[in-house]
Amino acid sequence: MTTTRRQLLETTSAASALALLGGLPFMGREAHAQAVDTLKIFVPAAPGGGWDGTARAMEQALKATGAVKAVQFTHKGGAGGAVGLPEFVNQWKGQPNALMVAGMVMVGALITNKSPMRITQTVPIAKLTEEQEVVVVPAASPHKDMKSLAAALKADPGKVSIAGGSAGGTDHILAGLIAKAVGQDPKKLSYVAYAGGGPATAAIIGNQVAAGISGWGEFAEQIKAGKMRALAVSGEKRIAGVNVPTLKESGVNVALVNWRGVFAPPGVADKDKKAMIDLVSKMAGSKEWKAICEKQSWDMSLVAGDAYAKYIDAENKRIGDVLKDLGLAT
Questions:
Q1: Which fold is adopted by the domain 36-130+260-325?
Q2: pLDDT for the residue 180
Q3: DSSP 80
Q4: For a surface tag, which of 1, 140, 292, 328 has the fewest beta carbons within 10 Å of its beta carbon?
Q5: Burial class (CB within 10 angstroms; exposed 0-12, middle 13-18, buried 19+) of 251
């Protein structure tokens, strides 16, 4: 009986020592890296748009890396996120393992719609991607390059109708910046706002407008099919593998990208905020996420935590200033 007790004590001591040294994964490292059972993602837009696409891409990457077991989606569309944000702020308050996907469009939409809410009422977790905009014209357009379209805008912006997304969104902001860069008053733009990429695409292909602006991914297939002519992309450099010049190369001194990121609800505990920053940062560094971004022509652009909060503050001011020029903010 004495021998058995001693053997048991020795075995227990050895197991404890191994655990401290990391020799027993099930008592140490594996438990520390345990996957999130369910990640809840709030998408303040209807299914099928850019924010939903980002959320689905996150699900794919997080599941592939084993970081989460399941992802639960909630959609609340309307007014560029201005309808959904109050629900996330008020009804999701303090929830752990919860994220909202949003971005530049929401910043502009909240200002344009004179919403009493701001994206800064959430907890910024990480900026994930940037996507370049593209300026296109119908295939039969007389404008063969951006210099030609810029000259027409400079001569009379009211005669150059431009199709794009919601008023105050990224497309509208880029149109305003282009007008200002060619020496025209952005308020004189003939901007035609559409609720989604489908109607805008139909208007451009049907020669109902002189030009169009959207994210590269939105128009890429139509450009490849020869139904639209791409004149310029909006980044500081060309999109990899795409033979389309930048606005700056075309003599229009403008650079703008549409960014997307994730936010935690207000009132979230510090430990849960850190957990979400760690989760998203690891995902952003994975080969699975890199492959998704390359396929979508998204530029990976991770900015996390406090640095992201500062970025959001700067974007609120920058976008607000552009919207004032467009007559959409005071």
A1: D-Maltodextrin-Binding Protein; domain 2 (3.40.190)
A2: 95
A3: G
A4: 1
A5: middle
